[in-house]
Design goal:
Strands 3-2-4-1-5-6-7-8 form an 8-stranded mixed sheet, with helices on both faces. The protein is built from 13 helices and 8 strands. It is of the alpha/beta class. Helix 3 packs antiparallel against helix 4, helix 4 packs antiparallel against helix 5 and helix 5 crosses helix 6. The protein starts with a helix and ends with a helix. Bound molecules: guanosine-5'-diphosphate (GDP) and magnesium ion (MG). The site of magnesium ion (MG) has 5 residues, from helix 7.
């Protein structure tokens, strides 16, 4: 019995709620991906070179990433040879197993948030406009509030029209403290916020920023200034700098990640809007091509649609119709 069949059984009993969000959020990717693999199974009665070529294009279409796909196919071909597999139907199970292995094998990038035992945990959110930074902050505020923590939101995106009130609304909805001032200097707003966070003994501070990647040098300087202010108040902070990427932008998201890595020290990725794309394979590409852990994924617009990234739940959401 393969790895996947094993954890499939465990899943049915545990992890119910999260699993439903994964299942629903990955529906678009799953429908397309699984139906294409099924088509392959019908079209080919034997596993041939042509079969592998078509499989390769299915995987690339799901945005899994070329290097990842190549490694994956190499391993698949080896297993086909070693285990004398000729029937595409049987190969499906091997495909599931090997997809799982892509993520589980190799380096152990941690997907845990570096929460501080004492004093506030400061999480800085970066990323270009429209990717879902502010929404993700709202979702995270909700998550931590529900865990019984006190949360503060700081509006470091001070220039974009509507950005400050948008964050304030999230603060109200999630019972979080809020610090923000339109058109003010982001670093000074963050200064005020952290001062208050220390006074009020806040547990989690979530900082929104502007994402003007068009001007890399300016953005770098701004983030440097922000990091300096944060570090002055709380040594070793920010404890996390999360880069938000919109999954619907595909390879563009990968190049954003590469640019941001040059600009500042990114500790993890939040991949949003997975529900809006059939290219949910991008999760696997990020691991291989950007080498940063995906810490959270956005699977919808509602406040509960942000989940800690869990590879087993992800693979389940991606492939459950294939079993
Ligand atoms: N479907 C979907 N929409 C999302 C998700 N995350 C954010 N959005 C939407 O993306 C849009 C831009 O989000 P916003 O937080 O304002 O982006 P920001 O400019 O990076 O702060 C909003 O309409 C959000 O509702 C998600 O996981 N799924
Ligand atoms: Mg915003």
């Amino acid at each position: 019995m393969g790895l996947f069949s094993k954890f499939k059984e465990v899943f049915k009993k545990e992890k119910k709620e999260d699993l439903e969000v994964y299942e629903k959020g990955l529906e678009k990717t799953r429908k397309e991906f699984v139906s294409e693999i099924n088509v392959l199974g019908h079209k080919f009665h034997k596993v041939t070179d042509e079969y592998f070529e078509e499989l390769e294009s299915v995987l690339i279409k799901a945005d899994i990433g070329i290097k990842t796909v190549e490694d994956f196919l190499e391993r698949l071909k080896k297993r086909v040879k070693d285990e004398n597999i000729t029937d595409p139907e049987f190969l499906r199970e091997v495909i599931i197993d090997e997809l799982f292995m892509i993520y589980v094998e190799g380096d152990t990038l941690t997907d845990k948030i570096n929460i501080q035992e004492e004093g506030p945990t400061v999480i800085l959110m970066v990323g270009v406009n429209g990717v879902g930074k502010t929404t993700t902050i709202g979702k995270l505020a909700n998550k931590y509030h529900k865990e019984g923590k006190t949360v503060m939101l700081i509006a470091g995106d001070t220039f974009r029209a509507g950005a400050v009130p948008q964050l304030e609304e999230w603060a109200n909805r999630t019972d979080s403290l809020f610090v923000g001032k339109e058109n003010a200097d982001p670093a000074s707003v963050i200064y005020d916020g952290l001062q208050k966070a220390l006074e009020e003994k806040v547990d989690i501070v979530l900082i929104d920023t502007a994402g003007r990647l068009q001007n890399k040098v300016n953005l770098m300087n701004e983030l440097e200034k922000i990091n300096k202010v944060i570090g002055k108040f709380i040594p070793n902070a920010p404890h996390e700098t999360l880069l938000i990427i919109d999954a619907t932008t595909g390879q563009n998201g990968i190049s954003q990640a590469e640019s941001f890595k040059e600009i500042t020290n990114i500790t993890g990725i939040v991949l949003t809007k997975l529900d809006g794309t059939a290219k949910g394979g991008i999760v696997l590409a990020i691991k291989e091509e950007v080498n940063l852990p995906v810490k959270f994924i956005g699977l919808g617009e509602k406040v509960d649609d942000l989940k800690s990234f869990d590879i087993e739940e992800y693979i389940y959401g991606l492939l459950k119709d294939m079993m």
